[in-house]
Amino acid sequence: MLKVDHISFAYDKHPVLEDISFTIGAGEHVAIMGESGCGKSTLLKIIYGLLQLKVGTVHWSKSQVMGPLYNLVPGEPYMKYLSQDFDLMPYTTVKENIGQYLSVFEPEEMERRSMELLQMIEMEDFSKTKVKNLSGGQQQRVALARVLAQEPEILLLDEPFSHIDNFRKNSLRRNLFDYLKKRGVTCLTATHDYHDILPFADRVIVLKDQQILADKDTLELYKNPKHIYVASLFGEANEIPINIVKSYADTKRRIIVYAHEFRVSETSGLEITVKKAYPMGSHFMIRGEYDGHIIYFESTDGLDPDTKVFLNISLETINSRLMP
To answer: pLDDT: is 165 or 194 the higher one?
Structure first.
């Protein structure tokens, strides 16, 4: 089990993280989400032991992560960290990079593991290509395989798909996270892309203003966000007063509604004036206005500016999203 216990950290007296605590069970996949600069990468570096803590502690099982003041080479042997700097050997081949951490005394096992990892990152055809001749996205995939070759107990991933082409991301995500689950590897993924975590992470920790804003099971957090910032990490979201949705409501409390949860009607509901339609391929994202409130919703049709339409929200959504 990973235990992060009341840690705080600052760069040159500028606070980045304050009083952060959580635990992660063995084999669990937890995503760290938040906007750029919220401390995601800093948190991973602290957990790995690249940054020295003055306040709080980090433990993996019974071992405390001591930091660079105590370790000549920062980092713990049971833990691996894949940063946005790939740290590869540019003048050797892809297969040689991966095989660096595999035993040469078991050549058959080395070959089997090398091919297994090459298949996982979908780079069998590049096994003999020198790393310096690869694209940034290909190098990121090699770096991932090289880390996995070391068979860590816990894996820290910092924006692991940031350089990878969109058409390949989905299959690589499935390959990687299925691989980790089957082997019981504990995983923390720092990301701002909800596609990295919605289908894969068991839990999400959201960072904002140096603190943990939310820590819940992934689908529970997605379905019932209690803060517009949290909802916006999962897609286009609106925070609107409930009384503009249900005219009989006498409260000024607000609700969070994702753009795809509105239903468009031509006859009844919340009357919206269309301002702009953005084609998204399978649908249109519409920016509308109601009494000075900007509302984003999805429509199967492109709607012309100044068109009047009506929006409806299910009672279930209203009841589950009502904010204090």
So the answer is: 194
Both tokens of residue 190?
């720092």
Give the helix, strand, coil percentages of the chain, each rounded to 5: 30, 35, 40
Distance CA 228, CA 115 (A): 45
Answer whether residue 207 shows pLDDT above 90.
yes
Provide the pairing of β-strand 293-299 with 284-290. Answer: antiparallel
Exposure on the CB side of residue 171, measured as CA atoms within 13 A: 9
The answer to whether the predicted template modeling score (pTM) of the entire model surpasses 0.85 is yes
For residue 11, which phi and psi values (nearest 5 degrees)? -105, 115
Is the torsion defined by CA of 60, 62, 65, 71 positive or negative? Answer: negative
Cα–Cα dist 214/306, whole Å: 38
SS3 assignment for 122-164: CCHHHCCCEHHHCCHHHHHHHHHHHHHCCCCCEEEEECCCCCC
Antiparallel, parallel or unpaired: β 29-33 and 186-191: parallel
Q: Hunting for tokens 């609107």 — which residue is that? A: 240
pLDDT of residue 319: 81
Supply 264's token pair.
């468009």
